[in-house]
Amino acid sequence: MTSEVMAGRRGRGYGCAVTVQTLPAFGGLLRQWRERRRLSQFDLSVQTGVSARHLSRIETGRAEPSRQMVLRLAEALDVPLRERNALLVAAGFAPAWAETDYWDERLAVAREAVGWILEHHDPLPAVVVDRFGTLLDFNGGAGLLMEDVDPELLSGRVNLARVALHPRGLAPRLRNFGEVRQYFLDRLRAQLAVDDHPAVAGLIEEVLGYEPVAPDDGGWDGTSPSPIALPLRVRSRHGDLSMFTTIATFGAPRDVTVSELAVELFFPLDKATRAAFAAAAGA
């Protein structure tokens, strides 16, 4: 069911009419985020300076928060910008943060910064993804990982989880398919817990339907020295590759798109892997 949220609800104008899906009451959303952060009303009261009694009245709909109150509570609960906008709209206010297309000229400075990272990380792989894991950009080193991936998986909206786990993707060359599969599922489920988007739920269902297509050497056996992070172990034309990743994000973003960007950087776990990427770049 849809409803019109018109300018001037309780005297707080949007400046235009916005058609949205029926929204949960602000109090219910606030309670969900508080419980997700494992905070009692008293804990949140201490953090924000708002009395626990008043928080209770807001959560039960007996009191209406001001715009500043919504922002203060969202900040204390570390709510992502997209969901802060949802809290504002649920309370009857206009969204505070724009959502700009990644390739829009207004994000040129952000793309320049990301491009610098990609370029200087070469020949090691680096990719840029959005909140769904959609591939937005990558460097030359990432091409080595994507060799032999079905071109169909690399056309249109390319999803990193699909490329990694699909039987016609990277999966046949993964030596620790089970570990990598669980890693991607954990990431997708964490995202689903934040915004409950049907696209994420659909991708989880799709990934769960994939069958292993190569021998899995298994994960860490608990006896050998533990890797510093979950490794990505890949068979390649240049020998076996073993890597870990770090994720870089923007500090203090003021745009929803920028807040959801992630630059994933791949680093070698051994000298053979580093040499393989260097040799591939030289070739």
From TrEMBL:
Cross-referenced SUPFAM superfamilies, in alphabetical order?
Answer: lambda repressor-like DNA-binding domains (SSF47413)
PROSITE patterns xref list: HTH_CROC1
Q: What organism is recorded for this protein?
A: Glycomyces terrestris
Would you tell me the protein name for this molecule?
Answer: XRE family transcriptional regulator
One GO MF term, please?
DNA binding
Output the superkingdom of the source species: Bacteria
Q: Where is the HTH cro/C1-type domain?
A: 30-84
